[in-house]
Design goal:
homotetramer; 164 residues; alpha/beta; Rossmann fold; 5-stranded parallel sheet; 5 strands; FMN (chains A, B, C, D); Flavoprotein-like_sf (chains A, B, C, D); oxidoreductase (chains A, B, C, D); flavoprotein (chains A, B, C, D)
Chain lengths: 164, 164, 164, 164
């Protein structure tokens, strides 16, 4: 199953990106087909017709499984990630199965992927059958909670039927 | 597909129940197999070992597709519905595909099923691939938004793989 | 300042109640004037005209400062607490300053008081100027986070102007 | 009372800005002292040390009353607004009283200011004693709900005590 990773961390090649790639690799039995590090798109994110942004949006919309990852800023996802999501047209993630992933410095914001990030993806039309996942940025690489999450939710992440 | 309807309205045989049965009928090409009107369970809901409550919990957990419906009180689901959901053991809805449905007097609380009711069902282990649905209690029977919702989300509500 | 404590834990005299009384005592420089343990109201909570429930609602509405406390069930407040809040008329907490407090077994649900409980109180008309507070049920009595919270938010909890 | 308006609409001089200025004017018995239209800050928002952004952050932090306004994109506030809020240091709005305001094309997202925008401001340390306000972008100028909102919440928006 082709998997795309979308990361909204202002720091390039962040731990957020690494954690998202690890999750995608576990879900797909191999590395993700494509990784989009939003910060690399630069100021074109602030406008409406940037070709690189349009290309990235098109790639995201083609994904079968999309891991959407953000660090936790102010107890929720980053403005950088939302800036990219705002470029996706209404309903533009129909047919995409998406997984919200957030990393944070401590455990207090663990509800944010489910309560805050997932509804944005659903509003865009994505199917989000798994609970949002939260990992500590200091411990994601050996996170025992990841195994539990995969056991519980992994089977739900098979490809969605595409709308006719 | 056997569908169960769970309704948390303090008024028996409410419009909430009627709307939930209509939704279930559309999703299942026939009337739901079972309808649980929580208010009928009475004071046993306040304790821990009531046989009728335990029986209702068992029925809900057997559902393949579960429509969970509430009127909107104080901009969210009712205490009555949550009282019942609190009786379900941790992870007790694993293997159930659930649809959050809320009815309200006006349109202002339309985000409540997605932002507030769905996360409770997901926390219980349910798979909720469709956006939460909100309908006006004065207009649900001829609600044009229902057709749109069914087109968009209906295909996602096929039965989930049961955990091994 | 007269403070009222409202507790929605199915277990009477719970740690939730103890934590709420401690918080109220810190906020008011003395024990709270009144403590309402919702579970004691019994099956009258399920109807509409119970005199003891009506009396408790009236007491809550008279509070200047109201600590509203719940354990965390299914990642949010209890159905028992919401059952009581559903008995308060629309706008019925106007003029009340309220503090949402939740206790949980682990840190993962720390956003619940702010994201889930506070909006119910605000919808009822309460003024909630402080961030919702979350404490571990195993450690609330010596919680260092409480001191920080009091320093940051305590000054905001002076009585609200009553509506004319 | 000096009031600042902060607007996160990708279109300069938007209806969002106009609605926020109108609200500020009603709250302050005169036009706001300062209006910050985030879009004007440009690509500096994507970095960490832009002088114009730093200056705008400083101005926001000096406000006694801050109206924070956004259009509704994907059922929540814009990435542009969050990009600016992410530049504010942790706890940086302590001592500021803030009002979340969102505009939308229809009524369905009316819970977003209270459930989604307000918690970001509170996490930054702002005091948000009023319910988040939502207005239709087609009708905000003659919105009867504004008068009701002002009657109910206006008295709560007196200046907060500054932390010592």
């Amino acid at each position: 199953m082709p998997i795309t990773v979308l990361v909204g961390n202002p720091k390039p090649k962040s731990r957020t990106l690494d954690a998202a790639v690890r999750l995608a690799t576990r879900l797909g039995d191999g590395p993700p087909e494509r990784v989009i590090d939003v910060v690399g798109l630069g100021p074109g994110l602030l406008g409406r017709d940037d070709p690189a942004v349009a290309e990235a949006v098109a790639r995201v919309r083609e994904a079968e499984l999309l891991v959407v990852a953000s660090p936790t800023f102010k107890a929720t996802y980053t403005g950088l990630l939302k800036l990219f999501l705002d470029q996706i047209p209404s309903g533009g993630l129909a047919g995409v199965t998406a997984v919200p992933l957030m990393l944070g410095a401590g455990p207090a914001h663990a509800l944010a992927p489910e309560l805050l990030l997932k509804p944005v993806l659903v509003e865009l039309g994505a199917r989000c059958p798994a609970q949002g996942l939260y990992q500590l940025d200091s411990a994601y690489a050996e996170d025992p909670a990841l195994g539990e999450w995969l056991t519980r939710w992994g089977p739900q992440l098979a490809p969605a039927p595409r709308p006719a």
